[in-house]
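To whoever is on call:

I kicked off a structure prediction for a single chain this morning and the downstream step that reads the tokens threw a length-mismatch warning. I double-checked the sequence; it's 72 residues and nothing unusual in it as far as I can see. Pasting both halves so you can look.
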Amino acid sequence: LCWSDLYRAVVLQPASLHLAPAVSAAVSGALREGEVVWTQDQYGGFSFVRTADGRSGWVSADAAVPVRDARP
């Protein structure tokens, strides 16, 4: 397991990035299915994620699942 992979997740379905961990919060962007993100925090069924291109926001925890990558 590589340290950089501990917080990596993949988006399972298109999802909205929210400014706060609530469905009613303003949307700041969108995530595509299959996009790789890094989880930085979790709160109330939401994960705060950062994308490879620097976008960040809160997304439903069900939309992005952790990736555990074991390497020799």
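Update from on-call: the warning came from a stale cache, not from the record. Cleared it. Sanity check on the structure: The chain has a mean pLDDT of 89.
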